[in-house]
Design a protein that fits this description.
The structure holds 2 protein chains of 2 kinds.
Chain A (H helix, E strand, L loop, with lengths): L5 H8 L6 H33 L29 E3 L6 E15 L3 E12 L21 E5 L3 E8 L61 E3 L15 E3 L8 H10 L11 H24 L8 H10 L6 E3 L1 E7 L15 E6 L6 H7 L2 E7 L6 H9 L9 E7 L21 E2 L6 E4 L4 E8 L9 E4 L15 E7 L2 E2 L2 H6 L11 E3 L4 E7 L5 E6 L7 E7 L39 E4 L37 E2 L13 E4 L3 E8 L7 E4 L4 E10 L8 E5 L6 E3 L1 E3 L4 E2 L5 E2 L1 E8 L5 E7 L2 H5 L3 E7 L17
Parallel strand pairs in A: 1-4, 2-5, 4-11, 7-8, 12-15, 14-22, 23-26, 25-36
Antiparallel strand pairs in A: 2-3, 5-9, 6-10, 10-11, 12-13, 15-20, 16-19, 17-18, 17-20, 21-22, 23-24, 26-34, 27-31, 27-35, 28-29, 28-30, 28-34, 32-33, 35-36
Chain B lengths: L1 E7 L5 E3 L3 E2 L4 E6 L8 E3 L13 E6 L6 E10 L5 E10 L5 E3 L13 E9 L5 E10 L5 E6 L5 E4 L11 E5 L5 E10 L5 E10 L1
Parallel strand pairs in B: 1-4, 3-8
Antiparallel strand pairs in B: 1-2, 4-6, 5-7, 7-8, 9-10, 10-14, 11-12, 11-15, 13-14, 15-16
Classes of the chains: A alpha+beta, B mainly beta.
């Protein structure tokens, strides 16, 4: 059923006896309609495309570059729809909801998907899709706010469980058997003699396994906000309720007050009462279902909520709806010790056990935070080009995503078609149109799952920005990384695009980059391929029309850094060091390779004969940080820091293969050193290549830790990164994790807490929330 | 993931929806029994029992890496009234997806007929062609002609009408221009699978 299209869905689901044909009718109906509309669309598309393929227009990608192939099926590039700030009221108010149903993935087909959709307070609700049609997948709406605005987002989870498997958050299969996907880990494959599912979860244990994927929340990635309460709280879990009451009047009344609730008792009474009653009801239903199936009763979510409330904390489990409400810190207001960096950020669902599947459903969107202050990031750019107070068509937002309704469930060869292609704003290889010499601001958001195909590799300006467009006359200037503007020195030296940072501009899952891009003078069609991900085409640029006279391509005077973004001082003797550094990303002790490894068969057992076409089954790696999976030793805080603390951390990667992207919420960090092990001579130990800028450290909130290398004697040389960070303004509990999100789901995550200095370390382990 | 809907009407008759998967897909059985008193036990794969109150919960792998048709037995536990057995077939094959045959076609000669060339295979016919677009360029990349279709002198043959027809979609005809023919297809099969693919053929 598609929430956008109830009639269509009901016709499918109410199918009964002999209705095989009827079940297919919606698809046939669409196809029949498609034949009529499709033909017209083909003509329209041909006409539109022919504008960019005029006989006099050479489809040649500039001197030195090979001709670009025609982009016959390429849709025009379009930014996602937007929920925009209200400047007068200094707020961004809107509804962000998860809906579900059949959605079309280009080059894959129609699949049951969960999608973010939303609208602003001053916008009408989106019109439902016409009956019989299947809407296309897309990221959620872009959120655009300004420093100092209040975020006022009503998050509604209206996913329909009946369209998906794996839907709840309990843990009654910790002991398995019996395995039941809705009471523990997702399952796949056949059972072995012991009753264990061979394919999945295999040796994965709850909660570090794929599970609970209809429950969701919103993580505002890149924001400096409270991690607790109604801030950027990823420990909140919102159980889906497709038939929920309208919660928005309650939320809007709270928003209207302008007062951000600081504790649970500050929340509207009606919300508190109704929500807690709904969780009690949900518990009762889960118990009844368990009893009906002779399973142990699941743990009570209501009791966990009550424990937390009694301890003066926020409950974690909600039913159908939750508000996000906080002020975006404006450093210049004087109210904060650090501020929010204006730039390109994003949001996505962040439910442990489901983050990868959520991101593969497309549950993400861009979050643009602007500063229009004189001399500020946005002001400098817009003033230089004369763009006024908004970017308009000069800005292109690229939300890179993979869409696939299925997790790989640890079967590398069994990934679907969708995970192998990267779409931009839900479109396959769209085409941007630019005039010769025109400059645009491109905002890249890597919202992929983070696996190999999802690493967006632009390279360097000398080594192939997006491969084929190098030397084609495009000019680039990176202005920000992970939503934090470059210092004037970095703006001048371009550490990524110059190749000073090894590999150039490589966006791991979660990374963002802003670039000013000038089109070449020569008209033509230019192809941009992903230097990672098998050189797949990502998008095209058609340069056509009258030239733009741009005397200098990029601002000659760059924005000064706000004081809070200047280089952090080195920690001194009075700064409390982190006792848990280095932070080691690793598999089981001694394991350096991925894939499933069989234990050797007992000597008395003949080696089993396997069908060579059958992929071998064995234990997949366990994804760990500092020798344990998330929560493996109970609900404890793994990293605890004092408020206002200043620390250097070392991050290490002990796995050969994936470059695990380290991500920490709430506060960005500065990158001091990148140590990459290389193997110039396989007969000798690895040699480290080191990036150590003397100053002007780049701010990021995601950084891929280089892969480990092995010496001939098997000694591991880990990839290593040193970061510096400070914890200003907000106490609370949040997480750090690998941003290859399947790794996060399977345990590569730590619980993080900031406590007041006078409560450090005593307050580190009090009332630790679960994150299941 | 493909979901196989298990339906039961008021007379107690149970059916599976028709579904085909390839070896790279999971399938999931969803009990759509409105009475909620029954749940499927996919006996031949030993993955049950699964209670499913209008939800889909069990996932099985494609039973074989090799193409073929496989029979599944589904037991519906009907409370006090015992067990109902039903059977369904899953078509498992590498051709269950809609695939291109080749992106780069054999070189051809202007004015000479090309062999009938299959460009789309697999999936489940009949196919719906949403878009077909072409352009012909000269050796310098200049566009000589563009429009709807597969190119001057060529035609697309979409004649597969029955589910088991393996003809796919073919291209035939006599190219009337010399240059590089590029054409693109946007095709659906009857199961809603989509293929978007571009093809190139050099005509001397």
């Amino acid at each position: 059923m598609n929430n956008d299209n109830l009639t269509h869905g009901l016709s499918n689901h109410q199918t009964k006896r002999g209705a095989r044909g009827r079940a297919l009718r919606p698809a046939l109906r669409r196809h029949l309609t498609g034949k009529v509309i499709g033909f017209a669309a083909a003509l329209a598309a041909a006409a539109a495309i022919s504008l960019s393929l005029l006989p006099t227009t050479p489809a040649v990608a500039g001197a030195g570059a090979p001709p670009a192939p025609p982009q016959l099926l390429s849709d025009p590039f379009a930014n996602p729809p937007e929920i925009r700030y209200d400047a007068a009221r200094k707020r961004l108010r809107g509804v962000l909801q998860i809906v579900s149903g059949k959605y079309r993935i280009p080059n894959v087909g129609d699949e049951n998907m969960r999608q973010y959709r939303g609208w602003g307070a001053s916008q009408p609700q989106p019109t439902p899709a016409p009956t019989g049609s299947v809407p296309g997948v897309s990221p959620g709406p872009t959120l655009r706010a300004r420093l100092g605005d209040q975020m006022q987002i009503s998050f509604l989870n209206k996913a329909d469980n009946s369209q998906f498997s794996y839907t709840t958050n309990n843990e009654s299969t910790k002991d398995d058997p019996p395995g039941r996907s809705n009471f523990g880990c997702d399952t796949a494959g056949l059972r072995d003699a012991s009753g264990k599912f061979q394919v999945y979860p295999a040796s994965d244990k709850f909660p570090n396994c794929f599970h609970g994927s209809s429950t969701a929340n919103v993580h505002y990635h890149g924001t400096h906000a409270s991690p607790d309460g109604v801030g950027d709280n990823v420990l909140v879990m919102v159980i889906p309720d497709p038939k929920q009451r309208d919660w928005t009047p309650i939320f809007n009344q709270m928003f209207d007050s302008g007062k951000v609730p600081q504790k649970w008792s500050d929340m509207p009474q009606s919300f508190r009462d109704e929500q807690m009653a709904l969780i009690v009801k949900n518990d009762a239903e889960a118990r009844a279902e368990a009893a009906k199936n002779n399973l142990r009763a699941p743990s009570s979510l209501a009791e966990k909520n009550e424990e937390l409330i009694a301890a003066g904390q926020w409950p974690q489990y909600f039913y159908g709806a939750f508000p996000n409400f906080w002020e975006i810190p404006d450093y210049d207001s004087g109210n904060y010790k650090a501020g929010q960096a204006p730039g390109t950020h994003w949001y996505h669902a962040h439910k442990h056990g489901s983050t990868s599947l959520h991101i593969l459903n497309g549950l993400a969107g861009a979050f643009i935070i602007e500063s229009n202050r004189e001399g500020g990031y946005d002001h400098v750019i817009r003033k230089f080009y004369g763009w006024g107070d908004s970017y308009g068509d000069h800005e292109k937002i690229f939300v890179f995503q993979q869409y696939d309704p299925n997790n790989n469930l640890e079967r590398g060869t069994n990934r679907g078609k969708g995970i192998k292609q990267v779409l931009i704003n839900g479109k396959l290889t769209p085409t941007i149109t630019m005039r010769p010499g025109e400059v645009q601001l491109w905002r890249f958001v890597n919202a992929t799952e983070g696996n190999a195909q999802g690493v967006i590799t632009a390279g360097t300006t000398t080594g192939g920005l997006f491969m084929l467009s190098n030397n084609a006359g495009f000019q680039y200037k990176q202005t920000a990384m992970d939503g934090v503007q470059f210092s004037p020195d970095n703006y001048a030296s371009q550490p990524y695009l110059s190749g000073t940072v090894r590999g150039g501009l490589v966006l791991a899952g979660g990374n963002r980059a802003d670039l000013l891009v000038q089109a070449p003078a020569k008209p033509g069609t230019y192809q941009f391929k992903n230097g990672g991900g098998g050189n797949a085409t990502l998008f095209y640029v058609t340069v056509a029309g009258a030239a733009v006279n741009q005397p200098a391509p990029f601002p000659t005077t760059w924005a000064t850094l706000p004081k809070f973004l200047e280089d952090l001082r080195p920690p001194g003797p009075n700064d409390i060091p982190n006792p848990n550094s280095p932070v080691k990303f690793q598999w089981e002790q001694g394991r350096t390779t991925t894939g499933r490894i069989f234990p050797p068969p007992p000597a008395t057992t003949p080696t089993p004969v396997r069908n060579p076409s059958t992929p071998p089954l064995g234990d997949p790696p366990h994804f760990m940080i500092n020798n344990k999976q998330f929560g493996e030793t109970g609900d404890i805080v793994d990293q605890c820091m004092p408020l206002d603390g200043l620390q250097d951390w070392v991050l290490e990667n002990y796995t050969k293969g994936p470059a695990h992207p380290f991500h920490i919420h709430i506060n960005p960090f500065q990158v001091l050193k990148i140590e990459t092990p290389t193997v110039p001579d396989p007969t000798k130990p690895p040699v480290y290549v080191t990036y150590t800028p003397p100053n002007n450290y780049i701010w990021q909130d995601v950084i891929a830790i280089p892969s480990a290398q092995l010496a001939p004697d098997g000694t591991v040389s880990p990839g290593r990164i040193t970061i510096r960070q400070t914890y200003k303004d907000f106490v609370g509990t949040y997480v750090l994790h690998c941003h290859i999100l399947a790794h996060e789901d399977r345990g590569m995550m730590q619980l993080v807490r900031v406590v007041p200095l006078n409560n450090y370390p005593m307050g580190c382990q009090n009332n630790v929330p679960a994150h299941h | 993931m493909k979901i196989i809907n298990i339906n039961r009407d008021a007379t107690g008759t149970v059916t599976f929806d028709e579904v085909s998967i390839d070896t790279t897909e999971n399938v999931c059985f969803a009990n759509l029994d409105p009475q909620e008193a029954h749940w499927p036990d996919i006996a031949s794969n030993q993955v049950g029992p699964y209670k499913s109150a209008n939800s889909s919960e069990c996932v099985i792998q494609a039973p074989s890496p090799l193409p073929g048709k496989f029979s599944y037995q589904c037991k519906l536990h009907a409370g006090e009234s015992g067990v109902i057995n039903v059977f369904a077939q899953l078509a498992v094959g590498k051709d269950a997806q809609v695939n291109k045959v080749a992106g780069q076609m054999a070189n051809a000669t202007q004015g000479a007929p090309i062999p009938v060339s299959q460009v789309v295979q697999g999936g489940k016919p009949p196919y719906t062609i949403n878009r077909q677009l072409f352009q012909v360029t000269d050796g310098s990349g200049n566009v000589i002609q563009s429009g709807s279709g597969v190119g001057p002198g060529l035609q697309l043959n979409n004649n597969a009408t029955t589910p088991d027809d393996t003809t796919g979609i073919t291209v035939s005809g006599t190219p009337s221009l010399s240059g590089t023919y590029t054409f693109a297809l946007d095709v659906d099969d009857s199961m809603g699978r989509n293929l978007q693919q571009q093809y190139t053929m050099v005509v001397a």
